[in-house]
Amino acid sequence: MNTFSNAFRAEVVRMARKELKPELQGMRKAITSHRSEIAALKREVKSLTSRLKAAQRQTKVGDMAASSGQPKVSKRAAHEDFVFAPETLIQMRNALGATQLQMADLLAVSALSYGRWEKGQTYPRSKQLAKIEEVVRMGPVKAKKKMRQAAKG
Questions:
Q1: Which of 21, 25, 79, 97 is the 20 to 30 A CA-CA neighbour of 127?
Q2: 55 alpha-carbon distance from chain centroid
């Protein structure tokens, strides 16, 4: 009798799985799409949070400079005057007639990072912001010269 009950139980389980399989597949697809949406939203929140923090830092530095009435002297504070915008990178690259790869070499970063900055997907770190500011402030003539040197070396 034990063998019969085991076989019967196995058959019931098999039939139940067979009946539930289409419903489960739909639910699995929905769960997968929900997870990818959640991941995208988390990335967006992280990006917006980092932008907010950067804006708050810039506002604090601006308020401190305005209240003191004295020019900033620290190296870090000078870099915080620079406001990063993806459009700035695009305009700079167009002015130089350079590719994203050439700009990435000029800024000593990966092409992937540079592309993400230009698209506004990520925000450069403080060291990278300093390099971007340096290139923006040096002007197109010096930047082209530096780009040629980077290509040779």
A1: 97
A2: 16
